[in-house]
From TrEMBL, chains A, C:
Pathway: Cofactor biosynthesis; molybdopterin biosynthesis
BP terms from Gene Ontology: Mo-molybdopterin cofactor biosynthetic process
Family: Belongs to the MoaE family.
Gene3D superfamilies assigned: Molybdopterin biosynthesis MoaE subunit (3.90.1170.40)
Function statement: Converts molybdopterin precursor Z into molybdopterin. This requires the incorporation of two sulfur atoms into precursor Z to generate a dithiolene group. The sulfur is provided by MoaD.
Gene source species: Cytobacillus kochii
Domain of life: Bacteria
Keywords: Molybdenum cofactor biosynthesis, Transferase
Catalytic activity: 2 [molybdopterin-synthase sulfur-carrier protein]-C-terminal-Gly-aminoethanethioate + cyclic pyranopterin phosphate + H2O = molybdopterin + 2 [molybdopterin-synthase sulfur-carrier protein]-C-terminal Gly-Gly + 2 H(+)
Assembly and interaction partners: Heterotetramer of 2 MoaD subunits and 2 MoaE subunits. Also stable as homodimer. The enzyme changes between these two forms during catalysis.
EC numbers, comma separated: 2.8.1.12
InterPro entries associated with the record: MoaE_sf, Mopterin_biosynth_MoaE
Entry protein name: Molybdopterin synthase catalytic subunit
Presence of the UniProt keyword Transferase in the record: yes
Length: 154, 77, 154, 77
């Protein structure tokens, strides 16, 4: 699947295969992994949950946004759901473009947009408790009712 | 009738993934008020809402059969 | 191999595996692929050649530079040599860091440094000829006798 | 004696990957002059040089047994 939610471990090569093209000189991937320590606190494992049908639509929307902004770009994004242990792969974003600068920029755009508009949530489990994490971009309210595309170079 | 979906901490607080609620003709804001009052979900005021899998505004009006989802701040990636 | 020159197709997952760490939240990869069109000219295939022993040392040096500049970073780089067809993978760079911004920046640094200091050359083959490509960064002379680390945000 | 390595277009022009040349005591620049004169390699003036796999300066002096490599502008990646 080019844009998908997966209950199984993500095959990184398969995501990359979706963006291979004869006029790409560069493919970048972003692989989000479960980190053990956040601000000194030890994570045991995470649970990811998605509003799957909408999440897929929003991932596809991010792909469309990228193809409009970066000429010749191809995009594939797969996000994992379920229980993930430390070092497990939560998300894989692959972007191919003719030139390398675009491949980095467009990929970065994708992960920032995922954190804005894709209905996926993680619950962190620590030794002393658990909590649904939200608002990692430190925006509680959306004045426009929905998240806006933001310039990444702000 | 309308299928109303809850995720993350909202799901935990409501104790259900979805509820059947008659919301036809109500605005999103009015439905939030119903959910707030019925289930004591004070945080519902600050979450986003989707109608049929697209983000909606507080003053959008719900139609018969629309699927409504309350979307807490997301944390994927 | 964490820093290597390969005569065989590069296994991307193996390169990634070298940088997995419990305190990484982000892994970026850069995959350089053979592009068919450059400035309207059609490439048939490429030959990559390396001064292998020195190239490995220089790839290792880039890894050291990155670990010094970006705290907690891990790096692996494998470059292919020999005949490569369109869409074949020439280089794979994997960088892991605790936070994602660093993973993009450090990865970008690696590819720019490869194009400065690693003794690898490509010969482009077109329908009407062939040529060793050099000086892609448009720097013919190195006043310091050797390439200098440059800020990427210039 | 010194092993002198040629890559990319230099290798094509010299017609060999390596040559044995007596360069002990010569500067890099002096060895470049020898190569320039003997093999007609005019582009040798603008290439980098490595001694024992480390970049060297034109005024570095070559020791017995050093491996010298002429490094045209690189194009990996």
């Amino acid at each position: 699947m080019k844009f998908g939610i997966s209950k199984e471990p993500i095959n990184i090569q398969e995501v990359i295969d979706h963006v291979v093209q004869r006029n790409a000189g560069a493919i970048t991937t972003f692989i989000g992994t479960v980190r053990e320590l956040t601000k000194g606190k030890k994570t045991l494992f995470l649970i990811y949950e998605a509003y799957e049908s909408m999440a897929i639509k929003k991932l596809e929307q991010i792909g469309t946004e990228i193809r409009e902004r970066w000429q010749g770009a191809e995009v594939a994004i797969v996000h994992r759901v379920g229980k993930l242990d430390i070092t497990d792969v939560a998300v894989v974003i692959a972007v191919s473009t003719p030139h390398r600068a675009d491949a980095y920029e467009a990929n970065r755009y994708a992960i920032e947009r995922i954190k804005e508009i894709v209905p996926i949530w993680k619950k962190e489990h620590w030794e002393d408790g658990q909590e649904w994490i939200g608002d990692q971009l430190e925006k509680v309210s959306y004045p426009e009712g929905k998240p806006e595309a933001k310039h990444l170079d702000e | 009738m309308n299928n109303v979906l809850f995720f993350a901490h909202l799901k935990d607080e409501v104790g259900a993934e979805s509820l059947q609620i008659e919301a036809k003709g109500k605005s999103v804001l009015a439905l939030k008020q119903v959910v707030h009052d019925t289930y004591g979900l004070s945080s519902i005021d600050s979450v986003m809402t989707a109608i049929n899998e697209e983000f909606a505004e507080d003053d959008d009006v719900i139609q018969e059969g629309d699927t409504i989802a309350f979307i807490p701040p997301v944390s994927g990636g």
